[in-house]
Hints:
This protein is of the alpha/beta class. β10 and β11 form a beta hairpin. The strands form two sheets. The chain has an eight-stranded mixed sheet with strand order 3-2-1-4-5-6-7-8, sandwiched between helices. Helices cover 27% and strands 20% of the residues. It has eight helices and 13 strands. It has two domains: 224 residues, 3-Layer(aba) Sandwich (Rossmann fold); 72 residues, CATH 3.10.290.20.
Amino acid sequence: MPNWDQRKISNATIFLAGIGALGCVVAEILTMMGIGKLVIVDFDTVELSNLNRQWLFRDEDIGKSKALVAKEHLKVLNPSVDVIAFNQKIEDIPESIYATCDLIVSSLDTFEARRWLNSMCVSVGKPLIDAGLYEFFGHVQVIIPGSDSACLECQPLIPETRLQQVCTLPGEPRKKERDEPKEVFPSVGTISAVIGGIMSQEVVKLLLGLGSPIGYLFYDGFSEEFTKIDLTRRLDCFVCGEKWKLDELRYFAEGDEKIGELRKRIALIYGLADPTMIVGTKIVDDEMSITEAEISEFAPIFVIDSTVAKPIRIRVVLTHNSV
């Protein structure tokens, strides 16, 4: 086959975040193609409702770790593939593991987790293939850090709520350890196959250096139509933009403004979940003023949040009305 180099496939290491409906398709395809190493991370367990579309699992696997069960089945498919499984949250995986992978594939079931992974990929400079499902709809986005492609934070097509949720039947109990949304939505195996196949094809294209990444692709299973949209990176994006490269964002405020007010404004501006403000080595109290907390242009604030892999460094510039 012209332009095919199996050595590039066999020498590649792929990080797979989530081994649900999409993850199973991608893992199976890449394993049968002879990928060198597959790193699977998933903190969930197999449930009955998974079995109609998560093809790596069987009845006897219910209640077991998805990542560990997937590893066993994939090794049967192709014993030559090195499969490493982590029954952990993606946030608990060392940055060094992300850095050693050639690219990262995301089939996560919450948008908050996907935002965190997006931040990590930008930080370590690794391509990210992200996707989501809902009933007969799906999307795929390819993010190449350092290029003109938009990341999940700066693109204007952040998936609707229905494309961000967990694909599990309503009313089924979920793991208490996970911070998951209250609503859950269904998915079907046919759409998983379509979207998972596209994700796998984008992996192959990136590894072999063929064609161009798709950017953002939306699929409508009812009309069998694809909508492709070219997205451009925003220079002011706080994750992948030029400001992030400087490792610091500037924020104007008055000295008598309460830390709680500042925290809420920063959370609103950057879409953070529940940020924690740290000055030096101390978490600053919401009731303190900026002046009381001894925050100045020479004492940056570090903002920690569950949606970003690394702290956001913000340097507060006091206005002339400051006390």
